[in-house]
């Protein structure tokens, strides 16, 4: 583990534990507002996307022991290299976006990949070519969908076509395929 000079980092807002074993981080300005999540799973800590590198965020992550990072889309990388240098965690990314990290050791997957009995990755292109979702089937039953679905004013989630959307048709096809991968009562929550 390589320490960051403590005084060189902004203090930041501490991550909030929103359910047992599930923390949410403040949106990351370095990655267009990506919201990162930390899960305490049966297979160890897992970070979904990269939060800001702040004193508060590193304090929580450094206490977790060895873990993994899952990147759900290409704009979720933020300060990944700095974070991996500090934590020495394994990185998972869909194979179509691995070329974006040519000097990093990463684990890749194609269509779907089980990371543990209660963790699965699904390739869901559309927002970016290698976008993916992480399904935590544990007691929380949460689908972490990156930019595939976005919150709406009515409290629901929906796909949103933006100037940054890679391919709208593939995004809609990914939603249909995701419904096939998930069970009838899944997910319980969407993040």
From TrEMBL:
Domain Metallo-beta-lactamase: 118-179
The organism of origin for this protein: Candidatus Synechococcus spongiarum 142
SUPFAM superfamilies named among the record's database cross-references: Metallo-hydrolase/oxidoreductase
Protein name: Metallo-beta-lactamase domain-containing protein
Source superkingdom: Bacteria
Pfam families (alphabetical): Lactamase_B
Gene3D superfamilies named among the record's database cross-references: Ribonuclease Z/Hydroxyacylglutathione hydrolase-like
InterPro entries noted in UniProt: Metallo-B-lactamas, RibonucZ/Hydroxyglut_hydro
